[in-house]
Amino acid sequence: AAVKKFQWTNKLPETGMVDSATWLALGTLIEEDEPVPAPEVVNSIELPIAPALDVDAPPEVTATAWTSVDMATGGVLGEVGSHQRLPIASTTKVMTAYLVFELAHSQPAILDEMLTFSERADNTLGSTSGVRAGETLSVRELMYGLLLPSGNDAAVALAEHFGTRLQLATAGSVQDTADEAASASVSYEHFVAAMNRRAAELGMDDSHFTNPHGLPDDEHLSSAADLAILARAAWELPQLREVVRTRVRGAQVLGAEGYTRNLRWENTNRLLGQAGFSGMKTGTTNAAGACLIAVGKPADGASEVIVVVLGSASSAARYVDARNLFAWSWRQR
Predict the structure, then answer these.
(1) pLDDT value, residue 2
(2) How far is residue 121's CA from residue 133's CA, in Å, rounded to a whole number?
(3) Is 180 within 8 Å of 164 (Cβ atoms)?
């Protein structure tokens, strides 16, 4: 009845239905405003004030977990969730490189050994060094292919090449040549076992490795605190430092048919383009988010600081997180 009365008043067909003409006649619907208190009431209200900004507090970051550590002393300057066990993506490769360069410290000739890529290495998913199955290059050059473009394929090739040798060294056997009696797949497993063994020796209690590259695996986990321990140990090896500081590297591979092919590797660590940063390793997967182990030294010449961020919101965010944490960490000493 009310609709028909409205329609009659507005000289519309009295259908009793709210059709388009009826809606148009209704005009713009206006919600009734909340009543406004009297001015003296509004003016008497005291709004709350948040505490003053704590300039000494760590910055807000997007990372799930982080830590900053004094390189010289190992002292922790700050951390959030640093012992949370998380996926770590290609920061794994610091351990892979550490095992090879640590072996090279006592056996320098291994860096000049020639390594031929297997089909398994070539077929590894994700970031790549670009070396193809059957192509050969020195271990020394492949370390750049591992750490600059973050070659998952290079990690597999190195594990196949050195795993059994590391196992034999642990068992106290003497190894005179690079040729292994065991298959490449067995050598690969020996290498992963060596990663876990060395992690335990370093006191990396939050860590468990299932591969040498960091591709997702539910049991492949570490923590920001453990990666700082690893970074501090790895930084003692001059040859590793030299590689992770390098921004661009050219290399040449030799094919089985006798051809040569040139490769160009660019470091994924964008902090290297800014003074004060010495490098280490990036890592990114959907599971891990954007990760970074970085080393930086303040302009005042104080000792270097290690910053580890895990699970940053994006590749760009990890660098913002890291820079802010470095700036804060340098002020703490």
Answers:
(1) 82
(2) 7
(3) yes
Q: Looking at residue 301, what is its pLDDT?
A: 80
Determine which helix (DSSP H) or strand (DSSP E) holds 248, and give its type and residue range: strand 248-254
* Rounded mean pLDDT for each run of 10 residues along the chain, 333 residues in total: 83 86 78 84 90 76 98 97 99 99 96 97 96 98 99 98 91 52 86 98 99 98 99 98 98 97 98 95 98 94 94 98 96 84
Q: Across the chain, which distance is largest between two alpha carbons, in Å?
A: 106
Superfamily (CATH H level) for 65-331: DD-peptidase/beta-lactamase superfamily (3.40.710.10)
List the chain domain ranges: 1-30, 65-331
Cβ(247)–Cβ(266) below 8 Å: yes
Identify the CA nearest to 254 among candidates 148, 83, 139, 138: 138
Residue 116 DSSP one-character state? E
Radius of gyration, CA atoms only, the chain: 30
State which amino acid sits at residue 113.
E
Query: Which pair of structure tokens corresponds to residue 173?
Result: 């056997």
Structure tokens at 110: 């291994």
Q: Residue 12, Cα to own-chain centre: how many angstroms? A: 69
pLDDT at 180 (0 to 100): 45
Contact 267/247 with Cβ under 8 angstroms? Answer: yes
